[in-house]
Design a protein that fits this description.
The protein is of the alpha/beta class. It has helices spanning 40-52, 67-75, 117-129, 191-195, 199-212, and strands at 7-12, 15-20, 33-36, 58-62, 79-90, 94-100, 103-105, 108-110, 134-149, 152-165, 179-186. It folds into two domains: 7-75, no CATH class; 79-212, Alpha-Beta Complex (Nucleoside Triphosphate Pyrophosphohydrolase).
Length: 213
């Protein structure tokens, strides 16, 4: 969701755990699992089962209680990592993408110690793309992704900001960070990009475009 928190969607590569306090937001598909929260112990057991069983596509967790409490229970077993990035549009209604590790992505990176999150988002977009005349507008949402690093289970929260650019001059991808291409893409030409991006980015862009129409 954008600007409203009725749902937490945490990605595990191509799968996700979706936590919500709105039953109407649950739409089960083939391969999905459903659980109504009853206790912390049972909830954590469900999460462990999901992480081990790759045949479960998405796990929907519904709570009648406070959604933030459910998310806190989920998060406390993970090492938290903060990142920030931007959905950048120019005057031609194009969106700025990068190409790295054989996938299209949006410019983003880790928040440094004592750095404001919006400053990190602004800095990372410029560093990764070389874009000029960038203006930061508002926070759109956060995305969440769980992964393993050096034996630790981590959850990265990426804070996404809407940004505008009045200069579409040549971009300069940050090759030191393995970025091969920085490119403006017309909103009408996004399908090939979304086919070859991460599920979290596809979800973010789809929700963002739906909100600004």
């Amino acid at each position: 969701m954008i600007n409203e928190r009725q749902i937490y969607k945490v990605f595990y590569n191509n799968r996700s755990i979706i936590m919500t306090d709105k039953i109407n937001l649950i739409s089960l598909k083939s391969g999905d699992d459903y659980y109504e929260f009853s206790s912390e112990k049972e909830f954590l057991s469900k999460i462990i089962k999901f992480e081990k069983d790759n045949t479960i596509r998405d796990l929907y967790v519904y709570t009648k209680d406070k959604l933030e409490t459910l998310f806190e229970i989920f998060s406390k077993r993970l090492f938290y990592v903060s990142a920030a990035g931007g959905v950048v549009r120019n005057e031609k209604n194009q969106i700025l993408f990068i190409y790295r590790f054989h996938r299209w992505d949006l410019p983003k990176g880790h928040v440094e110690k004592d750095e404001a999150i919006d400053d990190a988002a602004y800095r990372e977009v410029i560093e990764e793309t070389g874009v000029n005349n960038l203006t930061l507008s508002r926070k759109i949402t956060s995305t969440f992704h769980v992964y393993s690093l050096e034996g630790k289970r981590c959850m990265k929260e990426t804070h996404w900001y809407e940004m505008n650019c009045s200069d579409s001059s040549q971009l300069h991808p940050q090759t030191s960070e393995a970025i091969e291409i920085a490119k403006w893409v017309d909103v009408s030409d996004l399908n090939p990009i979304l086919i070859k991006t991460y599920p979290s980015i596809k979800d973010l862009i789809s929700n963002y475009l739906r909100k600004i129409k």
